[in-house]
TrEMBL record:
UniProtKB keywords: Aminoacyl-tRNA synthetase, ATP-binding, Cytoplasm, Ligase, Nucleotide-binding, Protein biosynthesis
GO BP terms in the entry: arginyl-tRNA aminoacylation; glycyl-tRNA aminoacylation
Source species taxonomy: Bacteria, Bacillati, Actinomycetota, Coriobacteriia, Eggerthellales
GO cellular component assignments: cytosol
GO molecular function: arginine-tRNA ligase activity; ATP binding; glycine-tRNA ligase activity
Protein name in the entry: Glycine--tRNA ligase beta subunit
Domain DALR anticodon binding: 589-683
Amino acid sequence: MSSLHTLAFEVGTEEIPAFDLHKATQQLEKLVPEALDAVRVPHGDVSIHTTPRRLIALVEGVADATEALEEVFRGPSAKIAFDAEGNPTKAAVGFARGKGLDVDALERREENGAEYVFATRSVPARDVAELLPGVLEGVITGISWPKSCRWGTRGEYFSRPVRWLVALLDERVIPVEFAGLTAGKLTCGHRFLAPGPHEVARAADLLDVVENAFVVTSEQAREQRIREGVAAAEAETGYRAELPEKTLLEVTNLAEYPTVLVGTFDEEFLRVPEEIIVDAMLMHQRYFPLYDAAGKLTNKFIVVTNGDPAHADTITGGNERVVRARLSDAKFFYEEDLKHPLETYVDRLDEVVFQEALGTMKDKSDRIVALAKHLAADAQLGEADAADAERAAYLAKADLVTNAVVEFTSVQGVMGSYYAEASGEGEQVARAIADHYRPRFSGDEPPASDVGKVVAMADKLDTICGLFAVGQGPTGSSDPFALRRSAIGILAMLEAGLPVSLMKAVDASLSTYESAGIDFDRDDVRAQVADFFVTRTKVMLRDSGASPDAIDAVLAAGVDEPAEVVVRVRALEAARKDERETFDDLATAYARANNLRDASLGDEVDEALMGDAERALLSAVGDVEARAAVALASDDYAAALAALATLRGPIDAFFADVLVMDEDESVRANRLRLLNRFVDVFASVADFGKMAKGGK
């Protein structure tokens, strides 16, 4: 019985970008075991440990040798593999060659009453240590990086220059080669606290050696260390820190030995809008702001450093000087911007290109105003709200050319609201300017007011229609202009109760582009935009748990307004859930009627040719048609569905008592016209034929 060993493999590098490191860690968790399995190396658990300067894989239970293997392959039938004289055909020769065998090695065996040729290939056991150099080099080259580089005179690519390699199978060095380096027993520690080199006696010691050199070797352990440091800082200051997930992940993967410190900036900077301060610290410097018990920003912040904790005061002082410089810039930009009313920046939007074929941001601003006016009228906003929507649309993009937003781009919209208030604009206008980028992502809150929703929808829909008009709509997984996110935002606002027609708004938006002289096929682009929103609506409904057949049933009825599709699908799902058996029977009856009907005959029936079951169905259809029309007019889809459900009894009686395909041609045609009437009453609600087999 062979003994089992520990394999340790480390790739030492210059500092790898934080998010690239996170993705590489995830890749290695699959890449390492797959590489070993591909050459049949028996092994146990695989663990991955990464830091900004190293990628480590530890593999337990590695055997001395691969297992010998005998593979049996079934080939073509004997009739095809051999001719009448028993000589091998091209099929047999090709099959044998593909398995690395001579044709004489093929065997004939019977299987399930037929004779086939079989190839048996023996794969001998191999020494694992001999296989590992190639396997581990393949792991290095198998990592996919967003960006790679070459260094020195080498031709190999990696995220950052590789500086050392360690590869050990217990005490034995595995001579992996990459970029002019050959793996050995020497690793490096923390760049400043214990650079090394440090010798690793055996594979099982690698993590201990590295961790004793001031390196926290896993992303999870570094994050925990940071969280503990933040908790201590909160206890010390009495303040609360916000740790955005993305920024926390980044700082976790920027330090090998993270230490949490608390810095301070001058209170005078708190007169600058909070959003700029947070942007300067969080986005630019990766510092975490601290808030008091009331949620108000304080002049203290948290720094995560990779430096020597013994020099904490020096490190803190350096970071405070950096913050002071950034906030001084922010304060200067803000005060300079306030010297001019927000409206004066609108004309300068001509200096900013929106999209090469669609003009400048000033052109876009003019289109947003026109579309906002249309939406305000469609939503029947009051005169004051409509005026606020138009004014907010006019000013919404003005802050893009202010000093503060040019420097701190994440505060666009927010700064516009501050400048609007300072310029004497109304509170609702200022709030709509701040909110018009919302919802920014799925699950984000839409603007609070209808005025804000109108401006936000106008902005997003203008972008979608314009880019489709110039052939820049999303394709496959590529969506460089985030149009899907914009569509989801529009759908969220419609679902939140913005009472407008999306397709009328699309028409209004396309008209603004036609007026601007943009050349495009209006009907084709309208159809593309409509299909784009239908697809987004289907995705949103499926993600929320709606049955695909219910979605298809509503869409088949010709409904193209997303808000209406959503309401109808949910009403359909609720009705089916509450009365499942009745509803499924009704869907089946509808499908039966739909399959028999002949639309070319029309729906004008002759009662003189009818029996009792037919008259009962005709009366029921007429009654339900009227009730459904009233319900649909008031958007009460649940009532419309309830009315349709009452047709179950009459249609069941009809099919039980009546032979539709009667020998008398006039009777048969009359009954088919009645089925046409029955099916047509459903058409305005949903195509129940799509639901004949029930839901989930």
